[in-house]
Amino acid sequence: MNRRAFPVTWIVVSLCGASPAMAHDCRVLGHGYLRGTYEGGCEERSELAQGQGEARGADTYVGNFVKGRPDGKGTYTWESGARLEGTFKGGKAQGPGVYVSAKGVRYEGEFDNGKLATMKAADCPVTQGPVSC
Question: Which of 83, 86, 106 is nearest to 96 (CA)?
Fold first, then answer.
């Protein structure tokens, strides 16, 4: 092997071995506001987001995914600045959570299928997401 070719070959092999840290083509399901880039765990057969990850589109979700949807603990941030920290099930807020509207109004409580009984309609997010009003 040529002396110059060895270092170049080693660099190429090293870069190929670094691929797990790079973004891949796993899919995030549900509404389109999280579609864009995804970095994190992936179920290889289905190519769906699985385990810890971050999805960025118009909105952002950082947390656990199951079968391509937010599921478990995580933080969902709307493009407007509204934010929800809590637990999710099948892409919807489910269980304990803290929601802060784009206006800064804070709600804390138990979400049931994306709904929090005490939330006022004026504080609901403008775009679809894990919270419905």
Answer: 86
Q: Which of 53, 29, 25, 52 is nearest to 39 (CA)?
A: 53
| DSSP 8-state code for residue 123 | G
Cβ contacts of residue 126 below 8 Å, gap of 6+?
A: 78, 80, 102
Could you give the CA distance from residue 94 to residue 114 in angstroms, rounded to a whole number? 6
- pLDDT-flagged residues of the chain (< 70): 1-24
Residue 40 CA to its chain's centroid (Å): 9
User: What is the tens place of the pLDDT at every residue in 37-53?
Assistant: 999 999 999 999 999 99
Measured distance CA(87)–CA(74) in Å, rounded: 6
Domains and CATH numbers, the chain: 23-123 (2.20.110)
- Reduced to 3 states (helix: H, G, I; strand: E, B; else coil), residue 24 is coil
Answering whether pTM is above 0.85, one says no
Q: Which amino acid is at 15?
A: L
